[in-house]
């Protein structure tokens, strides 16, 4: 069962559907805020702190872009990426993987639109996002 605050956030998505939006999937709060800061000039941004929360959101929305950490709680980023790629509704969603693990980066290289090794600079992420959207 979804936590009350999480459920309320999901219900609020209907009001924001008209705006361009991005989803940041990152369990580290500081890194998640950093990614959101980079994206907020072009998108309405939401943050999912767990894989389960990301999948709940992805059932209701079609983000234009996802910035995805691979090592997140409950459902791995690799599994989220596989589910995004298997979902026809999300076929045009750009997925940028940001990970500190080079082995995991190699594992998803063919599934992601872009794979970045952390740390990622503000300018680097901003410029790459602009190229993809």
* Second CATH tier, the architecture: 3-Layer(aba) Sandwich
Summed over residues and divided by their number, the pLDDT gives a mean of 88
User: What is the straight-line distance between the termini?
Assistant: 35 Å
Helix content class: 40-55%
Number of domains: 1
> Strand portion, in percent?
15-25%
> What would you give as the CATH superfamily?
Response regulator
Beta-strand segment tally: 5
Q: Spans of 5+ residues with little confidence (pLDDT < 50)?
A: 13-18
Continuous helix count: 6
Provide the CATH top-level class: Alpha Beta
Say what the CATH topology is: Rossmann fold
Structural class: alpha/beta
- Rg measurement, Å: 14 Å
Secondary-structure element pattern, one letter each: HEHEHEHEHEH
The biggest beta sheet is recorded as: 5 strands, parallel
The largest sheet has its strands arranged as 2-1-3-4-5
- Shape field: globular
How does this model look, in words?
The protein has helices at 4-16, 29-39, 51-60, 77-86, 102-108, 122-132, and strands at residues 21-25, 44-48, 65-68, 94-99, 114-117. With 133 residues, it is of the alpha/beta class. The chain has one domain (17-132): Rossmann fold (3-Layer(aba) Sandwich), CATH 3.40.50. A 5-stranded parallel beta sheet has the order 2-1-3-4-5, with helices on both faces. Strand 4 (94-99), helix 5 and strand 5 form a beta-alpha-beta unit. It is globular. The N and C termini lie far apart (35 Å).
Topology (elements, then pairings):
Layout: H1 4-16, E1 21-25, H2 29-39, E2 44-48, H3 51-60, E3 65-68, H4 77-86, E4 94-99, H5 102-108, E5 114-117, H6 122-132
Parallel strand pairs: 1-2, 1-3, 3-4, 4-5
